[in-house]
């Protein structure tokens, strides 16, 4: 069972307007924008005990393979958490939705076989701390499955992303930052990178600041002498 933290309020994140917008647009994006296929790829082959960071409205829950024994799903935003609880009731594996922030995960160390982060690392308040917490709660050899958008390879788009992140984008989109370098941050947190690929969403469509994406796996290393 999750271990509640006294240091983190139950509603560490509160973006009610964005939450309502996201709850609508994310369902459409899954079906019409192809995001659902990326979620399937993200979760393929995952097993054991899983912690999901920033579960949103629970769109991943129905996609977990039967080899998953339990999912602890953290969602700090109240209205999204309510939707996630409803989605958990329809899931094919046990899912427990709890409040909590990525920077202070309310669970024991080395308690999970895998961690899942999908379209959430862009919005955590402290990315290095959040990744450090994810590493803490994974057993040695445990996997971090990630599907995130972030810094573009092209200089022009990257400049646009950085400019928007300093001004209006986080205010409009629930704290989202489009210019974070997810791969560099994962490596800096001490993970071993596995396979990953970069692409644009929608593939072949109009490129937005949030279009550049990366999907892959990293592992917490085993301790060495």
UniProtKB/TrEMBL annotation:
Gene Ontology biological-process entries: methylation
InterPro entries: Methyltransf_11 (IPR013216), SAM-dependent_MTases_sf (IPR029063), Thiol_S-MT (IPR052356)
Keywords, in A-Z order: Methyltransferase, Transferase
GO molecular function: S-adenosylmethionine-dependent methyltransferase activity
SUPFAM superfamilies in UniProt: S-adenosyl-L-methionine-dependent methyltransferases (SSF53335)
Superkingdom in the source lineage: Bacteria
Protein name: SAM-dependent methyltransferase
């Amino acid at each position: 069972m999750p271990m509640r933290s006294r240091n983190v309020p139950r509603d560490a994140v509160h973006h009610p307007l964005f939450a309502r917008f996201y709850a609508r647009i994310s369902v459409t994006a899954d079906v019409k924008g192809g995001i659902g296929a990326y979620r399937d790829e993200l979760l393929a082959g995952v097993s054991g005990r899983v912690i999901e960071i920033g579960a949103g409205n629970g769109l991943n829950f129905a996609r977990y393979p039967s080899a998953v024994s339990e999912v602890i799903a953290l969602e700090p935003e109240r209205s999204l958490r309510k939707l996630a609880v409803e989605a958990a009731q329809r899931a094919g594996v046990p899912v427990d939705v709890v409040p909590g922030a990525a920077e202070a995960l309310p669970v024991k160390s080395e308690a999970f076989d895998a961690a899942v982060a999908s379209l959430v690392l862009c919005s955590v308040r402290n990315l290095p701390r959040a990744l450090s917490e994810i590493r803490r709660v994974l057993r040695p050899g445990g996997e971090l499955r990630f599907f995130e958008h972030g810094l573009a390879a092209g200089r022009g788009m990257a400049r646009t992303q950085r400019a928007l992140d300093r001004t209006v984008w986080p205010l409009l989109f629930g704290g989202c930052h489009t210019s974070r370098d997810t791969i560099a941050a994962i490596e800096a947190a001490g993970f071993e990178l596995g396979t990953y690929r970069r692409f644009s969403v929608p593939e072949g469509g109009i490129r937005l600041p949030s279009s550049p994406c990366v999907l892959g796996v990293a592992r917490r290393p085993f301790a060495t002498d």
